[in-house]
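Page 42, continued from yesterday. The earlier attempt failed because a stray header line got pasted into the input along with the sequence. Redoing it now with the clean sequence only.
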Amino acid sequence: MSFFGKIFGRHRGKSAGISEKSKSYTIDIRDDCFVINGEKLEVPMHIDALTEVLGEPRAKRFKTDPESEHVLEAMHGEPITDRVNYTWDELGLMCYTYNGKVVNTFGICIQPQISDSPSNPKQLFGGKLTINGEHWLPVALAGKDENVFREFIVGNYLITAEYTDFDQDDATRDETSFTGLEIQLK
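This time it went through. Structure tokens are written below.
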């Protein structure tokens, strides 16, 4: 299950519309970075780098009980001290931090999310999304099927594309078959 699914569950969330503001944005995931409207970014990065490019996000802090903290630290191999998810509602973009400052996962929401998490964007990304300059869908479809998502490597990054319908036949999957993409180090 993807990070979105592990954190937020598998039930269908509310429907969100495409953000008009995001239509002017381009995101290209490259082997060593991702580029948003010409600005080169990398995961991990400090939240200030994203804020400089995308503007002020909405923040949602999560209290982590000691048992969950231990599991999360074992799962991710780093201390979990102050989980904060940041969301750019008008852009359909979000990110996760384990310490409130360093972004470890960046998410692009292209269809309504699987859950009604308070950190989900209120609108969907409607801009141009590419991988190494090419449309993202063929790369995602060539990835490894993990039952509820596709997983694939682009350079230094592990990309996860979660399905909107887990039971859909692969031959019929298109852009609407995925809720979005997550970018993190492999």
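Notes: Residues 1-14 have pLDDT under 50 and may be disordered.
Reminder to self: strip header lines before submitting.
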